[in-house]
Amino acid sequence: MTPQLRVYVPPHPLIKHWLAVARDAGTPSVLFRSAITELGRWLTYEAAREWLPTLETEVRTPLDTCPATLINPQVPVAVVPILRAGLGLLEGAQSLLPLASVYHLGLVRNEETLEPSCYLNKLPEKFDPQTRVLITDPMLATGGSMMFAMAELTKRGVDPALTRIVSVVAAPPALQKLSAAYPGLNVYTAIIDEVVNDQGYIVPGLGDAGDRIFGT
Ligand code: PRP
Ligand code: URA
Fold first, then answer.
1. How would residue 215 be classed by pLDDT, with cut points 50, 70 and 90?
2. pLDDT at 113
3. Closest ligand 1 atom number to CA of residue 148
4. Burial group, residue 187, by CB count within 10 angstroms (0-12, 13-18, 19+)
5. Rounded to an integer, what distance in angstroms lies between the CA atom of residue 88 and that of residue 81?
6. Both ends of the chain: CA-CA distance in Å?
7. Where on this chain does 5-phospho-alpha-D-ribose 1-diphosphate bind (predicted)?
8. Which of 128, 123, 125 is nearest to 76 (CA)?
9. pLDDT tens digits, 140-156
10. Which end of the chain has less Cβ packing within 10 Å, N or C?
11. Is 21 within 8 Å of 27 (Cβ atoms)?
12. Is 196 a pocket residue for ligand 2 (Cβ < 6 Å)?
């Protein structure tokens, strides 16, 4: 069977709540940041299902021994935040993946062409092919930035089937591009909004995520 892009919108009240807070134009930067942190935490929790590698072992309780499942520390886990806005999701992701390496990728869209350019690339030359990679970026609009990130990752040996994207608002143009290029990929998002306007903003969306996180 051909693998397909899978997009999960977890029906969780905490995710819906923090999305509503983030969408509200009246939410001040300090609370917006908290909302994005919480979304990072709960969406990472969902994304970790059947993705975080485990190993079967045995533990001794005070009374007896019993079978047990632990996170496998031998399999590398990496988080790739797309700067700036992806940094907002990092704290929540890291709280659940404390042993993950963090590789920053700084991308910014040209306001006219909407094409991304890269101003910081801390990716290693090569990833172990077993590496579980979680990419964080709250906005998937035209998809240009995430396509750029995926190209940088896959040319360094990352397997799209072992990669999870955590976003907050995803739009069809981005999902269509990712689906065509990386059918095994999994996306976790709080919502799918249908419209990307002529300025490249998702509507209704939540505005400029980076500006709102950093108060700029
Ligand atoms: C925003 C957002 C994504 C990108 C999405 O970043 O955080 O990275 O736009 O748009 P796309 O799907 O059309 O590429 P931006 O370039 O505004 O930079 P910032 O995070 O520093 O604000
Ligand atoms: N980037 C943002 O920050 N917001 C959008 O709506 C689209 C791209």
1. very high
2. 96
3. 14
4. buried
5. 9
6. 47
7. 84, 109, 137-145, 208
8. 128
9. 999 999 999 999 999 99
10. N
11. yes
12. no
Any idea which residue has 């709960």 for tokens?
42
Global pTM value: 0.97
3-state secondary structure of 80: strand
pLDDT bin (cut points 50, 70, 90) of residue 4 is confident
Alpha-carbon distance of 69 to 216, in angstroms, equals: 45
Q: Which two tokens stand for residue 111?
A: 């306001």
Q: How far is the CA of 172 from the centre of ligand 2 (A)?
A: 13
Residue type, 216: T
Residues 146, 16: Cα–Cα separation, whole Å? 24
- State mean pLDDT over 90-104: 97
Amino acid at 112: E
Distance separating alpha carbons of residues 11 and 37, to the nearest angstrom: 18
Examine the pLDDT at 44 and tell me if it is beyond 90.
yes
The annotation status of 116 as a binding-site residue, yes or no, is no
CB 135 within 8 A of CB 166: yes
Longest dimension (CA), the chain: 67
